[in-house]
Amino acid sequence: MRSKIVAGNWKMNKNLSESIALTREIITNVAGKLAADVRVIIAPTFVSLSDVSKIVKDTNVEVAAQNMHFAENGAFTGEISANMLQDIGISTVILGHSERRAYFGETDELLVKKVNTALKNQLEIIFCFGEELADRKSENYFTIVENQLKNALFHLSEKEWNGIILAYEPVWAIGTGETASPEQAQEMHAFIRKIVAEKYGDNLANSISILYGGSVKPTNAQEIFSKPDVDGGLIGGAALKAEDFTAIIKAI
Ligand code: PGA
């Protein structure tokens, strides 16, 4: 179902006690204040997931993992499976983040396996994709984005798309302080909805939440979120301070 979503990707920040403190602050700030169609999701590191998921129980804050392995289990030193996430009460996982693609060699082929395993284990996916600066400059960014989506997600059935949240994150805007303009975000989000509609029909395309990510801050969130095809944001740096994250939630 299309909802408005503000998700905080904490990346490799905050140890356990810091994660607990930040979670508590966020819970306090949003308690009783979210509209029915707004979801708030936080994604701490694996080390903090279990504790944080217990703390958010019975609140209006949800927790996601930042990654998982595609195998159900086995000899994959250092990795975490979908079942392990499920077992500690996690129902959402971020996949395909540009940092995973750039620093850990995640390809479309690998992401297909992760997507399939996540859905098989009833995990909802926040699927990240977006073009790099060179693509934006060479003006083939629509093709890049279209291929990322088609390669990783267009084998899914209509029903499986119930478990997909899209997060368009132009790589040149992540952690750089440079945000896509609201018009650039809207242009791409409308394009994404169009290619999903071409494959799956208008109903499905209109029911998908498409988040924007890349240097969203309290000062620019409202303008970006006001665009008709922008259903919220995936927030990195500004998700690490309860005050900023809460201000971004207010903007939606
Ligand atoms: P940023 O990160 O908000 O720090 O740019 C966004 C993201 O990587 O999801």
Shape: globular
| Helix-and-strand structural type | alpha/beta
Count of DSSP H/I helices:
11
**Distance from first to last alpha carbon:** 17 Å
CATH fold title: TIM Barrel
Let me know the CATH homologous superfamily: Aldolase class I
**Overall tally of domains:** 1
Query: Kindly state the mean pLDDT as a whole number?
Result: 96
Give a short summary of the structure.
The chain has 252 residues and is of the alpha/beta class.
Key attributes of the depicted protein:
single chain; 11 helices; TIM Barrel; globular; 8 strands; binds 2-phosphoglycolic acid; 252 residues
Explain what you see.
This protein is α/β, with parallel strands linked by helices and 252 residues long. The chain has one domain (4-251): TIM Barrel, CATH 3.20.20.70. The protein has helices at residues 16-30, 46-56, 82-87, 98-103, 108-120, 133-137, 141-153, 182-200, 202-207, 221-225, 242-251; strands spanning 4-9, 38-43, 61-65, 92-95, 124-129, 164-168, 210-213, 232-235. Helix 1 packs parallel to helix 11 and helix 5 (108-120) packs across helix 7. The longest helix is centred in the last third of the chain and has 19 residues, at 182-200. The radius of gyration is 17 Å and the shape is globular.
Fold blueprint:
Blueprint: E1 4-9, H1 16-30, E2 38-43, H2 46-56, E3 61-65, H3 82-87, E4 92-95, H4 98-103, H5 108-120, E5 124-129, H6 133-137, H7 141-153, E6 164-168, H8 182-200, H9 202-207, E7 210-213, H10 221-225, E8 232-235, H11 242-251
Parallel strand pairs: 1-2, 1-8, 2-3, 3-4, 4-5, 5-6, 6-7, 7-8
2-phosphoglycolic acid binds at residues 9, 169, 174-175, 213-216, 234-238.
